[in-house]
C-alpha cells in the first residue's frame, strides 16, 4: 500500500477510540437539524471549540523533508506568506476567511452583531476595501468570484423554535465592496447558489424564483401549484469543488460552512407527490420529470415523524433521494431503491463517489466501519472495503474520496477502488486533482502542522506550521487563508 502503514493504522485506532457515534436515526436527525434554527448556532460553537486560538507563523522544520518525485498535477511542497498579517484591535478576532477570485475576504463581528468585512489581494497582501456596520446582526460571509455575500438576521427572534426567522442576503461587488442588491427571505426558504444565478424556493408557497447573481435582476418565477416543490438542489459536476455532509448550508450559516456555487445549468426539485423535476436554472423551463417511488416529506408542514423523501442530491445527471419509513432510511434514484440498511450495519452518510456510482459509509458498533460502493444504474454492490470510522465532510476529485471527519476524528483519503490510502488525525480537503491539504495538531499544543498529500502516489510532505485558528480556513489550488485570532493570514502554495 502506498501510504505509510504505521501512520494509517495508528490513526485508525485513535479515531475508533475517540469518535462519538450518533445515537439517533440519520434521517430523523437530519429532519431535526433542518427544523431547529438554533442548531446552526450550536454548530458554530462546536467548530470554534475545535478551531480557536491566536497568531499564525510558518516555520521550517530542522530536518528536511525527503525529496519527492514530480507528479502531475505538481506536488505541493511548501507555504509562502503573502504580505503582513491583517491585524484587529484588542478584544476583536477574525471569524471567517473566504476566497473570492484573487481576493481573500475576512469577516469579523463587531459589537452586538455588526460586522467588519475586508478584502485583501492574494498576490500582494494589500487591503483593497473595507466595509462595516453596527446596525444589525450579521452571521457571516460567503464568497464566489462574482459576489461577496453577507447574511444579516433580525435580532428579534421568535420564541417558537419552528417559526421562520427573517433574514437578508446582501450581495457586494468583490472589487469594491459596494452593495449591489439584497434579498429578503426566511430561514425556512431553500436557496441554491450558482456561479451566475441565485435560486430561492419560498417555503410557505413553493414559489421558485431566480435572480442574476451580479445585478439582482429576477430572471424567472414559477408558482408552486397544487403539487408544489418541497425540496431543491443544484447539480454537481465532476469538476466542481463541493462537499457532502455539511448540508450545503453555506448560505444558511456562513459562520461555519462554506458555500460552493454550482456550475451546471440544471436545477433539481422534488414535489410533495414525489415528482422529480429538472429545470434549466437560467430560464426555469422544465427539462424532464420523473416519479419517485414514494412521496416527499415537507419537514416544516408535516414534522419530522412523517415518512417520505427527506433529501435530494444530484451528481452528473443522477438524482439521489433518501426516504424515511418505519424500517429506516432508504437511498435510491427516482427509478429504484439502491440501498437499505441491513443489521448489524447502520449507515451514517452517503455521497456520489464517481459518475453513476454511490458510496455509503456504514458502521457496526463503535469501532468498525466500511464503505459500500454501489452501481447507481443497477443497484449492484461493486465492492465493500474497510473505512476509517467517523462521519464528517466528504469531497470528490478525480474518483478519489476525501473524508474530513472533524471533532478529533481525522481525515481519510480513498483511492478510486474505495481503499483507504492515507489517514491522519486532522482535517482538510482537496487542493486540486493531485493534492489534498491536511492540518493536524501533532504535538497536542495549539499548533497545526500543514501537510500536502499526493493523490498520485499518496506520499505526504510537511509544508508548514500554523497555530490554532479562530474559524474555518479556506483554500484553493493556489492560496490558503486562515482567521487566526486578531490576525488574518494568507499563504501561497509552492510547488
Automatic annotation (TrEMBL):
Keywords: Membrane, Transmembrane, Transmembrane helix. InterPro entries: PQQ_rpt_dom (IPR002372), Quinoprotein_ADH-like_sf (IPR011047), WD40/YVTN_repeat-like_dom_sf (IPR015943). Pfam families: PQQ_2. The chain crosses the membrane at residues 40-58. Residues 116-226 form the Pyrrolo-quinoline quinone repeat domain. The keyword Transmembrane helix applies. Signal peptide: none annotated. This is PQQ-like beta-propeller repeat protein. It comes from Actinoplanes hulinensis. The lineage of its organism: Bacteria, Bacillati, Actinomycetota, Actinomycetes, Micromonosporales.
Amino acid at each position: 500500500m502506498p501510504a505509510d502503514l504505521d501512520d494509517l493504522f495508528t490513526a485508525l485506532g485513535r479515531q475508533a477510540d475517540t469518535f462519538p457515534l450518533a445515537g439517533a436515526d440519520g434521517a430523523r436527525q437530519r429532519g431535526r437539524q433542518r427544523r431547529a434554527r438554533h442548531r446552526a448556532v450550536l454548530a458554530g460553537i462546536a467548530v470554534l471549540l475545535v478551531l480557536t486560538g491566536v497568531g499564525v507563523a510558518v516555520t521550517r522544520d530542522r530536518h528536511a523533508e525527503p525529496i519527492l518525485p514530480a507528479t502531475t498535477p505538481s506536488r505541493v511542497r511548501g507555504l509562502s506568506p503573502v504580505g503582513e498579517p491583517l491585524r484587529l484591535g484588542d478584544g476583536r478576532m477574525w471569524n471567517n476567511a473566504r476566497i473570492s477570485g484573487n481576493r481573500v475576504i475576512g469577516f469579523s463581528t463587531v459589537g452586538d452583531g455588526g460586522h467588519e468585512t475586508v478584502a485583501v489581494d492574494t498576490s500582494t497582501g494589500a487591503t483593497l476595501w473595507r466595509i462595516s456596520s453596527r446596525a444589525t446582526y450579521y452571521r457571516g460571509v460567503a464568497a464566489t468570484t462574482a459576489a461577496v455575500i453577507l447574511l444579516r438576521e433580525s435580532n428579534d427572534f421568535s420564541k417558537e423554535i419552528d417559526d421562520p426567522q427573517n433574514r437578508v442576503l446582501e450581495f457586494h461587488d468583490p472589487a469594491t465592496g459596494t452593495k449591489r442588491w439584497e434579498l429578503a427571505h426566511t430561514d425556512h426558504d431553500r436557496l441554491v447558489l450558482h456561479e451566475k444565478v441565485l435560486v430561492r424556493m419560498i417555503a410557505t408557497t413553493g414559489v421558485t424564483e431566480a435572480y442574476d447573481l451580479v445585478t439582482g435582476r429576477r430572471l424567472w418565477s414559477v408558482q408552486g401549484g397544487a403539487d408544489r416543490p418541497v425540496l431543491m438542489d443544484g447539480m454537481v459536476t465532476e469538476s466542481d469543488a463541493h462537499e457532502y455532509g455539511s448540508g450545503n448550508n453555506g448560505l444558511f450559516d456562513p459562520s461555519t460552512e462554506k458555500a460552493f456555487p454550482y456550475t451546471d445549468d440544471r436545477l433539481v426539485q422534488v414535489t410533495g407527490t414525489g415528482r422529480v423535476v429538472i429545470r434549466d436554472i437560467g430560464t426555469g423551463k422544465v427539462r424532464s420529470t420523473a416519479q419517485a417511488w414514494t412521496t416527499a416529506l415537507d419537514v416544516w408542514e408535516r414534522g419530522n415523524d412523517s415518512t417520505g423523501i427527506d433529501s435530494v442530491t444530484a451528481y452528473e445527471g443522477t438524482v439521489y433521494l433518501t426516504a424515511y419509513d418505519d424500517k429506516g432510511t432508504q437511498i435510491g434514484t427516482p427509478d429504484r431503491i439502491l440501498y437499505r440498511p441491513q443489521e448489524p450495519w447502520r449507515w451514517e452518510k452517503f455521497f456520489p463517489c464517481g459518475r453513476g456510482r454511490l458510496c455509503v459509509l456504514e458502521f457496526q458498533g463503535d469501532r468498525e466501519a466500511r464503505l459500500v460502493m454501489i452501481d447507481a444504474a443497477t443497484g449492484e454492490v461493486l465492492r465493500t472495503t474497510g473505512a476509517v470510522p467517523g462521519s464528517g465532510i466528504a469531497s470528490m476529485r478525480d474518483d478519489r474520496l476525501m473524508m474530513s471527519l472533524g471533532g478529533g476524528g481525522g481525515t481519510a483519503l480513498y483511492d478510486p477502488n474505495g481503499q483507504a490510502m492515507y489517514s491522519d488525525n486532522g482535517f482538510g480537503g482537496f487542493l486540486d486533482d493531485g493534492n489534498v491539504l491536511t492540518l493536524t495538531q501533532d504535538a497536542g499544543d495549539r499548533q497545526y502542522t500543514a501537510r500536502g498529500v499526493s493523490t498520485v502516489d499518496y506520499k505526504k510532505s510537511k509544508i508548514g506550521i500554523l497555530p490554532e485558528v479562530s474559524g474555518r480556513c479556506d483554500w484553493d489550488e493556489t492560496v490558503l487563508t486562515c482567521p487566526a485570532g486578531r490576525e488574518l493570514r494568507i499563504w501561497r502554495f509552492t510547488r
